[in-house]
């Protein structure tokens, strides 16, 4: 994927109040960042922020942290948070490209239960402590199709081990993708990592139980409109013996 460089992205991210600049400093004390002891859910690969912002709006009693590697993409999530009318976040027609030149900052609902980090998720255990995270979301992650790159896939056994280090016992991983090959690889990795597969579907939008309360990402809306089925699995970290 070729990313368009946005010159002011890095400066905006460095100066934004909701972007955590030194995340390792908060390891084992993320509750202090939010000022409460609510559960922490993280999204790895937050993209333009549609999913995590809608989640934060729907669940004010949960703290959300979006992790995005690329500053130019994270910038778009911050623009959503700062300038979009929060009431439009779940609208399928909403996109940052639709924002008018002058938009008042939403004042009624600031979504203070969300923060962002610009980093590579491979270092996740450096910033979260043991049992500090309750749930992890992965949405339309890079499939890394070449076999020699399978360890880079966010559902690989190597990454599942990283998640085990930060998830609470019985903590959950929710994964969505349009890539059937990646999905089947992920099912296999869950099995050989001795996680518990709570549920799985090859066609999320036709699965009434799993689709209940589903929030679509930008990619999900795009692929669904093309008639592509969406795969989803929910894995549970097996408690240590």
Describe the structure.
With 241 residues, the chain is an alpha/beta fold. The protein has 8 helices and 7 strands. The protein has a 7-stranded mixed beta sheet, sandwiched between helices. It is globular and about 40 Å long.
Topology overview:
Elements: H1 9-15, H2 30-34, E1 40-44, H3 50-58, E2 63-68, H4 71-83, E3 114-118, E4 133-139, H5 157-166, E5 167-177, H6 180-192, E6 196-201, H7 208-211, H8 218-225, E7 231-236
Parallel strand pairs: 1-2, 1-4, 2-3, 4-5
Antiparallel strand pairs: 5-7, 6-7
Properties at a glance:
single chain, 241 residues, alpha/beta, 7-stranded mixed β-sheet, 7 strands, 29% helix, globular
DSSP E strands, number:
7
Which bin fits the share of residues in helices? 25-40%
Basic shape: globular
Terminal Cα separation, in Å? Answer: 41 Å
The pLDDT mean sits at 85
**What string gives the helices and strands in order?**
HHEHEHEEHEHEHHE
Largest sheet: 7 strands, mixed
Structural class computed from helices and strand pairing: alpha/beta
* Residue fraction in strands: 15-25%
Helices, by number, come to 8
Strand order of the largest sheet: 3-2-1-4-5-7-6
Unreliable parts? 85-108
Our Rg estimate from Cα atoms comes to 17 Å
């Amino acid at each position: 994927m070729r990313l368009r460089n946005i010159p002011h992205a890095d400066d905006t991210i460095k100066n934004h109040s909701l972007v955590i600049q030194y995340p390792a400093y908060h390891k084992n004390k993320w509750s202090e960042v939010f000022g409460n002891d609510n559960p922490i859910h993280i999204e790895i690969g937050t993209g333009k922020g549609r999913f995590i912002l809608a989640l934060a709006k729907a669940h004010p009693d949960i703290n959300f942290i979006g992790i995005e590697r690329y500053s130019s993409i994270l910038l778009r999530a911050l623009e959503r948070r700062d300038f979009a009318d929060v009431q439009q976040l779940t609208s399928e027609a909403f996109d940052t490209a639709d924002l008018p030149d002058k938009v008042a900052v939403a004042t009624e609902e600031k979504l203070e239960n969300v923060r962002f980090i610009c980093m590579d998720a491979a270092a996740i255990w450096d910033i979260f402590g043991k049992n500090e995270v309750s749930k992890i979301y992965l949405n339309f992650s890079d499939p890394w199709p070449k076999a020699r790159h399978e360890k880079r896939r966010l559902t690989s056994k190597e990454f599942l081990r990283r998640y085990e280090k930060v998830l609470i016992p019985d903590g959950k991983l929710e994964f969505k993708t349009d890539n059937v090959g990646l999905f089947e690889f992920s099912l296999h990795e869950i099995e050989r990592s001795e996680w518990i597969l709570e549920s799985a579907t090859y066609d999320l939008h036709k699965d009434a139980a799993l689709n209940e309360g589903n929030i679509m990402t930008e990619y999900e809306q795009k692929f669904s409109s093309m008639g592509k089925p969406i795969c989803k699995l929910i894995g549970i970290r097996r408690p240590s013996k």
